[in-house]
Amino acid sequence: MADYVVMPKLGFDMREGVLNQWLKSIGDPIKRGEVIAEIESDKATLELESQVEGTLLHVLEKAGAIVPIGANLAIVGEEGEDYSEMLSSEAPAEAEDESPPAAAEATSAPAPGSNGSAQAAPAVSSDYPAGVKATPVARRVAEENNIDITQVPGSGPHGRIRKADVEAYLTSPRPAAPEVSVPAKSYDIPEGDDVEVVETTRLRQAIGRRMTESKTTVPHFYVTSDVDMEAALALRKEINASLPDEQKVTVNDLIVKAAALALREFPNINASYAGDKLVRHNRINVGTAVAVEGGLLTVVQKNTDKSSMSTIAADNKEMIGRARDGRVKPEDVEGATFTTSNLGAFDVDHFIAIINPPDAAILAIGSAKKVPVVVDGELTVGTRMKITISADHRVTDGVEAAQFLQTVKSKLENPLLLLL
Amino acid sequence: MAFITMRQAISDALMEEMERDENVFIMGEEVGVWGGTYAVTRGFYDKFGPKRVRDTPISEMVIGGAATGAAMNGLRPVAEFMTINFAFLALDAIVNHAAKVHYMFGGQIKAPVVFRAPGGGGRQLGATHSHTPDVIFAHFPGLKVVSPSTPYDAKGLLKEAIRIDDPVFFIEHHTLYQLRGEVPEEDYTVPIGVSDVKREGDDVTLIAYAQGMYVAMQAAEELAKQGIEAEVVDLRSLRPLDMGPALESFRKTFKAVVVEEGHRSYGIGAEVAARLQEEAFDYMDAPIKRVAQYEVPLPYSRELEQSALINVDRVIEAVKEVL
Hints:
The structure holds two protein chains of two kinds.
Chain A: E1 3-6, E2 16-22, E3 29-30, E4 35-40, E5 45-49, E6 54-59, E7 66-68, E8 72-77, H1 84-87, H2 136-144, H3 163-171, H4 202-217, E9 220-228, H5 230-241, H6 251-265, E10 271-274, E11 277-280, E12 286-292, E13 295-301, H7 309-324, E14 338-342, E15 361-375, E16 378-392, H8 398-413
Parallel strand pairs in A: 12-14, 14-15
Antiparallel strand pairs in A: 1-8, 2-4, 2-7, 3-6, 4-5, 6-8, 9-16, 10-11, 12-13, 15-16
Helix pairs in contact in A: 2-3, 6-7, 6-8
Chain B: E1 2-5, H1 6-20, E2 24-28, H2 44-48, E3 53-55, H3 60-72, E4 76-80, H4 91-98, H5 101-104, E5 114-119, H6 134-138, E6 144-146, H7 151-163, E7 168-173, E8 180-183, E9 196-199, E10 204-208, H8 210-225, E11 230-234, E12 237-239, H9 244-253, E13 256-263, H10 268-279, E14 289-293, H11 302-308, H12 312-322
Parallel strand pairs in B: 2-3, 2-4, 4-5, 5-7, 6-7, 10-11, 10-13, 13-14
Antiparallel strand pairs in B: 1-8, 6-12, 9-11
């Protein structure tokens, strides 16, 4: 029995993916777990591992196609097997066509009904009449009303579509036009040689969408504080002296750990706004923004407050490496409850960041610099770093944000606390 | 209108028919001097005498055979089996003779006999005396099978059974004898082979008869308190089986639960469900459910017996599954 290879869901908010390229050709043997294609989601380029074993019999989607999650990409089965029934109503891609399709050819409109209601839509299977599990009366009512029953979400046992489901579908508002993944054009592109027009990546588009949403819907406020980094830098130097390169601790690792420990004391900041409710996260997962080609990603250290310095350092190094290579795993970038963004390597005094929803706050870290400071009434040279929190005013207020910064500061200024 | 028990309604039907037609007579074990094990014929012996109210030997083969023979010779016997469990002994007379002679002799002979038989479970009579084997008798063409759920239907159906020329097996559920209901004073009959909607509703169709009706109606009242309106169809006759009202109801509610006291396998529910899907497939919105007696010899222990029989909770549960 042949199986479909489907577009996987590689992130909790992923709705569709681009089939970048097939790494296998028709007739190739395929093992379970073998990488057979390259998929691009909003966040990253990922490898599609086959869940089935056999021979690649048929390719349903060409490279470049934008495909809703769960939709069929290819058919894998035994060599010579008759899979004609599995082609059903889908317009098969021409498997012989090896030329890369122009981007314009790729349809950006997902199949009707798949948008937003992907989970509710019935699983289409050749095991049932017309491909869906539905009661006889549901089928009749659908037919009488010219409804494609495969588009009706089923509420009965095991997703069976019942009469009431068809009636609800009939009276429900028509699905809105498919959500356009590119933000509305805000600028008329001039013609001619004066400009170079560059196609944006889906990652760039996703960042645009999320940041626009955050900055226009989340009431941000900002608090900045100075941290004496003398002790932290000294400690780091001491630790790293005896560690191999792959285990060396970065300044950012220290800050991530300090933030995590501080969040334990400020549950309102390790939280998400949810209308008339506030969701406090029991886990503290601190994300680190990483610059990648065409945008940025946030890699997330799970249970940061409970992780040792060496674990944080090693994990972050690995995740950042994968992110920069475009091989990030879905779990690397999911579940942040708080984010840090560090531009310390670029000689910045300080900056302010945009909150990464659904987090309630983000910490922006500037460079640790030698500056004149006053200690015990004497002017001397010290090492200072400015940190700025951007916080959601629906969740927390200035005093709490300032107290949180003080706590982060005190942990970094007494860095042995980070090693406990 | 009189508000009387089903026992009284059956007794009245017999009395009135015996008064109306001198060819009608009663026979059975202890039906005469004793007045019947369930007291249905109490007083009949004194009124009509031993010729028309005949106590028989304790032999169901005699009751079945003699009644069929008397009917073939022009009389209109109403033969009583003390319980339906004992009628198994008379199956040959009932199935091979009463049900077949009209056909076997090309219509030259008819057998207008009525077999009355109380039966059912729920009275701690043990496995061999608690059968609800209605479906066995309903299996054979040539024999009409009736089982009422109300005093009104019982009286009207029994009178009809006595008057028509076909053999009729008339099943009385012994737990319903005390059930009271309104019965007209004047003469009336209820046609055999006509189902009846006993309660109207739009949400689900309950199909039942006899004691199953009693359970189904109670379940319908409980469901109504939860905002679920069940339509309840009383089959009244198992042969001929009138599916009209059940189908009409199913085409309205799209969901059905069949309630019967007999065992589930090869039962009335199986027959009704099969006919619903054959005749109204495009109206089906859920599997048709059967509520029936569990597949065990009915236990003597009260608790065990009650748990093996149908009850209101099981009907409600089945309804919830199809809604």
